[in-house]
Amino acid sequence: MILSIDPGSEKTGIAVVHYDGSLVMKAIVPTPALAAHVERLYQQYGFSHVVMGDGTNHKHLQPVIDKWIAAGHSKVKFSLIDEKYTTVEGRKLYFQYTPRRGWRRFVPLSLQYPPEPVDDFVAWIIGQRYVQQQGGHP
Tell me, what's the pLDDT at 123? Predict the structure, then answer.
């Protein structure tokens, strides 16, 4: 499995993804608590690869993952993934998986923004991009 991270300054999207790109779990966590969440997810899912979007905030969070790997998880590999346009894709994915209710059903999607953060969906997209780059293989 793959742990995918959409790095943010205050909140960070995380997703655990199978090597076929299918979602196992996703969440949004406070950025300062990322290391604790990574360890908990490793214990629960035993992922073998961490992928992270290469946007501006990766410069602050990559050292957190590097330190976690160096502290006894040397078999876990790390990769940076191009995260260009992932926020736009994350918004579309949000609306695919979250039914619109009330007045939102009558307004075209092109005029709407999700009413909540989509960092978890963006993390899933980053994981899928990694899988596509690898041809669906670890």
Answer: 97
DSSP 79: E
116: phi then psi, degrees, rounded to nearest 5: -145, 165
How is residue 103 written in tokens?
A: 């007045």
**Structure tokens given for 9:** 């300054």
CA distance 39 to 34: 9
Quickly state the pLDDT bin for 125 (edges 50, 70, 90): very high
What is the rounded CA–CA span in Å between residue 123 and residue 134?
A: 17
Residue 138: inside a domain, yes or no? no
Structurally, how many domains does the chain consist of?
A: 1
Domain assignment of residue 85, given as a range: 2-133
DSSP 36: H
Mean pLDDT of 15-37: 95
